[in-house]
Amino acid sequence: MQFSKIILILVVASLLVLAYVFDVQSYLNLETLRANYADLVAWKDANLIVAITAAMVVYILVTALSIPGAAVMTLAVGAIFGFWHGIIIASFASTIGATLAFLAARFLLRDWVQGKFSKRFAQIDERFTKDGAFYLLSLRLVPLFPFFMINLLMGLTRIRTFTYFWVSQLGMLAGTAVYVNAGTQLASIESLGDVFSLQLVLSFTLLGIFPLIAKLMVSLLQRRKRLKNWQKPKVFDRNLIVIGGGSAGLVSAYIAATVKAKVTLVEQHKMGGDCLNTGCVPSKTLINIARKHAALNKANGTSEPIQLSSAMAKVEQVIKDIEPHDSVERYTNLGVEVLQGRATITSPWQVEITTSAGTQTLTTRAIIVATGARPFVPPIPGLSDIPYRTSDSVWELEQLPPRLLVLGGGPIGCELALAFANLGSKVTVLEAEQRLLSKEDEDAAALVTASMEQQGVHVVTGKKAVRFAQEGSESLVYVEGEEQPLRTDSVLVAVGRAANLSGFGLAELGVATERTLPVNAVMQTEIPSIYAAGDVAGPYQFTHVASHQAWYASVNALFAPLKSFAADYRVIPRATFTDPEVAAVGLNELEAKAQHIDYEVTRYDMSDLDRAIADDVAYGFVKVLTKPGKDEILGVTIVGARASEQISEFVLAMKYKLGLNKVLGTIHIYPTMSEANKYVAGEWKRAHKPERVLAWLEKFHAWRRG
């Protein structure tokens, strides 16, 4: 604990002890106030400035230390100083004291609470950053809610101190005025209950709810204003129109059809979207082909490059084999109207659809935008002058490039770089960050980098491409800090993806877009009838997250305002299909440190796993982050063969809050890679074994031996 925190705790504790020793509580009651009323008024008349200062200091200390008696203090300043002086003293003193208590709670407790309940507090912080004044004003206006609790709880949020001060001043003013006014009539008060009647309490409670009602009304008015330029149809052709036939769009349409809604799905290009046609399916197929080819070369002691046309033919065949799962025929049979053409949103309830058969306009209660994303091409001079490839167009290659430069060392860049290296290309990866896979932990990225280099990939990190040029059949890549350019036969750009935000009417409707299409917790855009899901909405560009979001978008679009569900991002797994694979769920060390979350690390090395040794893949590790001293899982990173399969047990455990003790107590088949999950749980258990109990057991067994 910081020295300054210890000092503050000692100061507060000392003041509370003094308050107890001098029995301050006995002075803060009506009887004492009445008994000393005349003397206090006389002293005030003779020493006005000193009396005001003393009243302020005592009031601030009572409030700041949360000592019961603030109500009597308010009556006292009203009785002694009169209404106007009394309300100024009580109002400012109570607010200053409350703010001091607020700051103390923030200084002493916020980091600890943030670390213990990080995910829950992330949502609370987001709300209080935006609407903290509304919530605070509501609580201050409700006298039934203890004010000292407000001080402590608000200190745990990110509400600004100045905002806390002025809102508290405003919110407590009405109640303070009631007590100060009552203090001016001290003789008629028998108890504190006389000050607040039931009717007055109810009135203040209703007043407290008013900011929330006002916020709701403002939200409704903003929505009405957003929709005022369009006439809402009285009858709708469809319950739902989905734009985009990728993962998010397909799942959205499927759910709508399942619950018997009338739904139309519009896809401009190929059904299945990027995942089927240019992403997950072809890339994993090529990775598999490349691994087998490299294994064959290793077994034969050769280094023959593959015939790329045959590899691409296999990729195309796999796409065709999976294609029926996402086909027009399948979804038509499920009850979805599938139209292949261009969709343009012309109003919050209308979509113009142009197909080969012509153009039609359909009305709909709700729209889901699931237009996905595309490879981002950075504006580097000369790049447009060379025949570069992206993850969309690399599948059009007919000849294996002898030399390939991959621009970008993220998951896509690393996967395709390693695949082409195993196919026989001389591959260079150029990454502007200081290392590959910058979002993964350093030890995971280092293991992947070492493996890639061992498999022939040349890795250059911490340097940017500043210019491209074409010289005959060669592409020249000029790198910062290097005099000579890198020469390559082909360039693959893999520096990320950009959401598809234009071309279907959002700009014309005035919908604001950022890097993605902003949505709220229920996947709704700023226009209430338009929802979004998948890569176009972010924040995660994974196929499984697109499907996950699609459930929320479709259900909310179909059943709002009767029922809605907030999207749940608590347990999101991910994987990079390099060799070794990297799979993760929850927090890694980078994220935990960035969020100031305390954690323990337990690690198990795959080199000790029997199945890994038998399969000649005895490299990698399982790393689990847990709460200090507890088996609660905060996050897991697995690096190794089939890590993407192995992570599933931890995804399930985190989803249903099962700790490492439960994983340890689960039978795992021998010999399998998944045994590593049990062994890492065993490592945690060994590190937390009850030493005292074991010492007594040792004595017990010695006693039993006689």
Secondary structure topology:
Layout: H1 3-21, H2 30-35, H3 37-46, H4 48-64, H5 70-81, H6 83-116, H7 118-141, H8 147-154, H9 161-183, H10 198-227, E1 238-243, H11 247-258, E2 263-267, H12 273-277, H13 280-300, H14 308-322, H15 328-334, E3 337-347, E4 350-355, E5 358-369, E6 373-375, E7 389-390, E8 403-407, H16 411-423, E9 426-431, H17 442-454, E10 458-461, E11 465-471, E12 474-479, E13 486-488, E14 490-493, E15 497-499, E16 530-532, H18 543-559, E17 573-576, E18 581-586, H19 589-594, E19 600-605, H20 610-614, E20 621-626, E21 633-640, H21 643-646, H22 648-655, H23 660-664, H24 675-687, H25 691-704
Helix pairs in contact: 3-4, 3-5, 4-5, 4-6, 5-6, 5-9, 6-7, 6-8, 6-9, 7-9, 7-10, 11-18, 13-14, 13-16
Number of distinct beta strands: 21
Radius of gyration: 33 Å
Shape, per Cα inertia axes: globular
**What topology, given as strand order, has the largest sheet?**
1-2-3-4-5
Number of helices: 25
Strand content: 15-25%
Helix-strand category: alpha/beta
User: Can you give the helix content as a percent range?
Assistant: 40-55%
Could you tell me the mean pLDDT?
A: 87
Largest sheet properties:
5 strands, mixed, barrel
Task: List low-confidence stretches.
Answer: none
Q: What is the end-to-end distance?
A: 48 Å
What does the model show?
There is one protein chain. The chain is an alpha/beta fold. The chain contains 25 helices and 21 strands. The mean pLDDT is 87. The strands form five sheets. Strands 1-2-3-4-5 form a five-stranded mixed beta barrel. A five-stranded parallel sheet has the order 7-14-8-9-10, covered by helices on one side. The chain has a five-stranded antiparallel sheet with strand order 17-18-21-20-19, sandwiched between helices. Helices cover 48% and strands 16% of the residues. Helix 3 crosses helix 5, helix 5 crosses helix 9 and helix 6 packs across helix 9.
